[in-house]
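Hey, quick one: can you model this chain's 3D structure?
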Amino acid sequence: MTSFFSRLFKRALDGIERVGNKLPHPATLFALLALLVALISWLAEMISVRAIHPADQSVITVNNLLSPDGLRWMYTHIMSNFVKFPPLGYALTAMIGIGVAEGSGLFSGMIRTLVLHAPTRLITGSIVLAGVLSSIGEGVGYVILIPLGAMIYHAIGRHPMAGLAAAFCGVSGGFGANILIGANDTILAGLSETAAQILDASQKVNPTVNYYFMFVSTFMITLIGTWVTEKIVEPRLGTYSGDAEKAAVNQLTRQEKKGLIGALIGLLCVIAVLALAVIPQGGILRNPENHGMLDSPFFGGIIVGILLFFLVPGLIYGLIVGTIK
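Sure thing. Here's the predicted structure for all 325 residues.
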């Protein structure tokens, strides 16, 4: 019975692998989904789909994007749609700080520190966790951690493809999770706020609304990714018999270590300044009328805190290491 289920499970994995290999490029998927939206708008108009606005009870009709009027509307509104996209301001503001931290090499140094100093028995979990945390730096996980995972596994005598898979699991599977607030959260908050304001124009949505879910998901994905890698992926790959040379995994230089220490000090200074502006009853970032927190300038402008959270450590790291001059 056990062998029957093992064969069945293997066939299921083979099927998933074949289907996954046939999926088109993400850019192609995006284009196909855009075309699908246009086709749905045509079909919805053809069958006279209607909806009632929940706030003012007005009738909402479908605009056919494939009609002459719809095509003209798309052509003339491309720029305004982009400029007025609600999350754009949030994302651009956050990306200033995140971009500096990534461009200075801070994220790369943090990821290598986490992975290279992990005990061998915890290496898989460390790689998956680093992948999840790397989502704060957009593409840094794909560029640095995925090849690094393969190199580390190869260096310790394990199948490099398993290390690559563990890193890819963390980077892609954990893209929406983190212990820090990032650009993705600001984008989602902007979208949610726009939707909420359909019912109530005064509604505000902070980028921190998903934090509890994100925080817990970070460790859930790490545990699940580690188990799947070690119990399913690595046994499925078997023993590595390739003749590829073991690539040297670059250790942190003395200057990079100094940069990380400086970045940590800078981060603590940012936290201390924000704490002084928020924790005291009369803090300048509390609500000046009732001294509350929920409707305070701190949460209203949380995106500025996110900007400083990455900008200051990134600048300090870059100045110490020499990537910023």
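One thing worth noting: The longest strand covers residues 50-52.
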